[in-house]
Amino acid sequence: xxIVDLRSDTVTKPxxxxxxxxxxxxxxxxxDDVMGEDPTVNELEEKAARLxxxxxxxxxxxxxxxxxxxxxxxTKPGDEILLEELSHIFLNEVGSAARIGGLMIxxxxxxxxxxxxxxxxxxxxxxxxxxxxxxxxxxxxNTHNYHGGAIVELDALKKMRDFxxxxxxxxxxxxxxxxxxxxxxxxxxTEITKHANSVMFCLSKGxxxxxxxxxxxxxxxxSKARRFRKMLGGGMRQAGIIAAFGLIALEPKxxxxxxxxxxxxxxxxxxxxxxxxxxxxxxxxxxxVIVELLEKVRILKIxxxxxxxxxxxxxxxxxxxRFVTHYGINTDDIDYSIEQIGLILKKVx
Length: 349
What we know:
By secondary structure, the protein is an alpha/beta fold.
């Protein structure tokens, strides 16, 4: 049976070029990263910082760890941070900001990742009021996962930065799929990252590395982040063996390949929409397609039926199914997926 895994772009496998590079490595390219002696990790960090226009970068084990060290490095326990209500940091990082960082969390609604700045302003605490936690940091997510891979446009990012400057806040960008946003906007990635004090992006999603993420910002920020990475158990030894995949992933050819994923997602989105069923297909900016059921149906029944037909997907709520395109998915897979999704949905809707 044909299997099309659309659960996430985290299921990607490294490219042949990545494996060839790994095979060519010798022990001379490895060292103890905690001591700053792994030349491959150092090269990756320098390359990542240069690419996104920051002074320095840090290789971390995951996006969750990268987001947490970014928060810890720019706040102190008792501070309040502002998170979008459907953000990954708020919903999917096990409450680490509160449990480990001692941070108060206040959420804000948005339209596909873009907040109302009037509403945001109403959330800012008076720092002179001794009874309230001070507001110190604003986070955004680009692309935004639960809003269907939505791109937060450059104008909105500029307004967020202006807002943080006005209110003396730090600005963190959860850019797990940062390069999807840059490719989708057809702009240099620095046009996105220049607005944020700190940036996290994943190597292990659309960029197809087996493990790892990057955190970037000022040299002072990265110095603090390195200490917090160690605190969280993220200090690695001969980490060049996994960092090496990232050196290939950050080449222009591999980043530009993300456009193929976007194209396949658009084909999938349009194909599902053309089924003319009682569903809503959310706007598809990048590589994520969200299908919302407009009738009360047991969504796990649909997920199970899809799995049996070889289409792997996640439900992200009681009404929404998420499909994610990535390296390894081709147009034949998309055509097969549309056919099977149609057959299954027509039985239940």
